[in-house]
Design goal:
Helix content of chain A: over 70%
Order of helices and strands of chain A: HHHHHHHHHH
Order of helices and strands of chain B: HHHEEHH
Shape of chain A: globular
Oligomer: heterodimer
Structural class of chain B: mainly alpha
Distance between the termini of chain B: 27 Å
Distance between the termini of chain A: 50 Å
InterPro entries (chain B): Brnchd-chn_aa_trnsp_AzlD
Shape of chain B: extended
Transmembrane segments (chain B): 43-66, 73-104
Strand order of the largest sheet of chain B: 1-2
Organism (chain B): Geodermatophilus pulveris
Largest interface: A-B, 103 and 80 residues
Strand content of chain B: under 5%
Keywords (chain B): Membrane, Transmembrane, Transmembrane helix
Largest sheet of chain B: 2 strands, antiparallel
Protein name (chain B): Branched-chain amino acid transport protein (AzlD)
Number of strands of chain B: 2
Radius of gyration of chain B: 19 Å
Radius of gyration of chain A: 19 Å
């Protein structure tokens, strides 16, 4: 198989796998009180899964719009760093091409593009992965949102249990090898969960999620040499 | 939250996330590649996702609660540890939540 064909095969495979998360996102959006159009608008316009899950997660917990937007933006900062890595590889000519390329700067397209053996294949991987994930993610978002609406009590209880499980599945690969620093990621995750639960009774819903991230970031702030801990 | 307010949240957050993506392709690398910034961004997802797992599984408004969601989460963790595919993890968590609802509504 040629390198181009292998790149396309991997991109399509990844797009199909990510599509499953789209179903979960559509269902989570419905559980949080968003209608099908709002769920689809998030997938089409925001198009960065973790931020979308965070937004509906905070809204579903009864959080304010500001806390929901804040959580989505906190997770969206990742994509800025990805863009910095992709800029020399993609080298988009002109503001229009750059604006178009930016929309597809996400975890999966970055991983595929930087893993490609050369620059031309990297660009192909970026475009192919972006296109398949964009189509699959939006289509399955609609399926999930429609499928979840109009559920009865027991099905609703099932959906309520699916949402935290989906977040855990997103988190899990960061906590296990071969992820670098899996042990430190586990400590950060435990810290985030504990801070969020401790704050839940005393702050407005949703704020504890943002506060947990800020607390963890402060705990990891740079210290003067010799005071590292 | 009203439909209009929800739409505002959806569109503002989408515009902000897009601006973050565009910024990465547009600004000089040195602006955002300070070691401390890179470090924090590496760990934000773990803290945020774990906080969301905890809040989604074990709280209702300002209260900490134990119900079928927590049982579903435990089953999901077990399935993930056994390397089950994503869809299997979600189905098992959902089935657990439904079972808990039937047994202890």
């Amino acid at each position: 198989m040629s390198a181009r064909a292998a790149t396309l095969r991997d991109a399509v495979g990844l797009g199909l796998a990510v599509g499953l998360y789209g179903v979960a996102f559509g269902a989570a959006a419905d559980a949080a009180g968003l209608d099908v159009w709002q769920a689809l608008a998030l997938s089409a316009l925001m198009f960065t899964g973790a931020s979308q899950f965070a937004l509906v997660g905070v809204l579903g917990a009864g959080g304010s719009g500001a806390a929901a937007v804040g959580s989505a933006l906190l997770l969206g900062t990742r994509n800025t760093l990805y863009g910095v890595r992709l800029a020399p590889l993609l080298a988009p000519r002109g503001p229009l091409r750059r604006a178009a390329a930016a929309h597809w700067v996400i975890d999966e397209t970055t991983a595929m593009a930087v893993a490609a053996p050369d620059r031309e294949l990297g660009r192909l991987a970026f475009r192919a992965t972006g296109a398949t994930i964009y189509l699959g993610w939006n289509a399955t978002t609609v399926l999930g949102a429609l499928g979840a609406s109009g559920l009865g009590g027991t099905a609703q209880a099932a959906l309520d249990a699916v949402v935290p499980a989906a977040f855990l599945a997103l988190l899990w690969p960061r906590l296990r090898r071969p992820h670098p620093e899996a042990a430190l990621q586990r400590r950060v995750a435990a810290g985030g969960a504990v801070v969020a639960l401790l704050l839940t009774p005393v702050v407005p819903p949703g704020v504890q999620v943002v506060a947990a991230v800020v607390a963890v970031a402060l705990a990891g702030r740079p210290r003067p040499a010799g005071a590292a801990g | 939250m009203s439909g209009g307010a929800l739409w505002t949240v959806v569109l503002v957050a989408a515009a902000g996330c897009y601006a973050l993506k565009l910024a990465g392709l547009s600004v000089p690398a040195a602006w955002v590649e300070a070691p401390w910034v890179t470090r924090v961004v590496e760990f934000v997802p773990a803290a945020l996702l774990a906080a969301l797992v905890a809040v989604q599984a074990a709280t209702a408004g300002p209260a900490l609660v134990v119900d079928g969601r927590l049982a579903g989460l435990a089953v999901a963790a077990l399935a993930l540890a056994l390397r089950a595919p994503f869809v299997v993890v979600l189905l098992m968590a959902g089935a657990t939540g439904a079972l808990a609802h039937v047994l202890a509504p």
